[in-house]
Amino acid sequence: MSTYFYDDAIVKKLQLWTRNTEVTITGPDETRRLFEVIADKTNDSPIKLPLICLTRRGGYQVTAPSKKPLSFDGLTLEANLKKSQQLNAIPITINYQLDVYARYFKEADEYARNLVFNIINYPTFQVEIPYENIDIEHDANIRLVSEVEDNSGIPERLISGQFTRITLGLEVDDAYLWDVRTRDNYSIGFRISVENEPVTDYNINPKTDFFPDSDEETNGKIV
Questions:
Q1: What is the pLDDT of residues 124-134, one digit of tens each?
Q2: Half-sphere exposure in the Cβ direction for 65 (13 Å, CA)
Q3: What is the pLDDT of residue 217?
Q4: How high is the pLDDT of residue 64?
Q5: What is the H or E stretch that residue 136 is in?
């Protein structure tokens, strides 16, 4: 389960902030092929401003490169006497770049100002990790990590004419790489015999450490 879950979640948050406006939001995949995507959506009409583009600054940093319990013995999603489904995780930091395009500086500056306030005041966003018929929810946070820069002087082939481009550096420093594993469980059987009482048989699941009556699933939320 890769980092694109975070890309999608941040785009959804940006779309929520800009709903009922004329702003177009593009995620990392769309931004990489921006000209073709915008052209397809608008039947080859010119790119319209304002436009907010989210891109990934390279890959990501693994913040805990050594083996930890979370990386191999994480959250148990569901368990029974035979099988256990386990969600393991490795903490990472993902760096992003957010570019605000507008025709005039005043307009771009206003959008950037609103984004800075929203990111600082409402940094938390929710990532949904799909697992069979369950969406496991994980809360992460966007943080500003660099100056807000006016990059209007950098040539841009996608937009003709005069325009303003303001760039914000972002990071998600509480992200994770996710991995779901299925493991076989082994039961320990024993018999208790008490004088003048019926013999009772027990099976203990060492993984779940309880006496399961059925194959019930256990759902979890990771925060």
A1: 999 987 766 66
A2: 3
A3: 42
A4: 76
A5: strand 134-141
Tokens, residue 48: 């319209």
What tokens were used for 106?
């005043």
pLDDT digits 0-9 by tens, 167-188 = 999 999 999 887 766 666 566 6
> Please, what sign has the CA dihedral across residues 198, 204, 208, 213?
negative
Helix (H/G/I), strand (E/B), else coil: 10: helix
Determine the residue type at 209.
D
pLDDT band at 216 (very low <50, low <70, confident <90, very high): very low
Neighbours of 70 (CB within 10 A): 15
- Quick one: tokens of 53? 């583009």
Long-range contacts of 26-33 (CB under 8 A, 24+ apart): 26/51, 26/52, 26/53, 26/54, 27/54, 28/4, 28/54, 28/55, 28/56, 29/4, 31/55
3-state SS assignment for residue 7: helix
Query: Residues 161, 171: contact at Cβ < 8 Å?
Result: no
CATH number assigned to the domain covering 4-204: 3.30.2000.10
Model pLDDT, residue 131: 66
Q: What's the rounded Cα separation, in Å, for the pair 216 and 51? A: 48
Q: Whole-structure pTM over 0.85, yes or no?
A: no
Rounded Cα–Cα distance for residues 56 and 60 (Å): 9
DSSP 76-90: EEEE-SSEEEEEEEE
Token duo for residue 101 = 């395009």
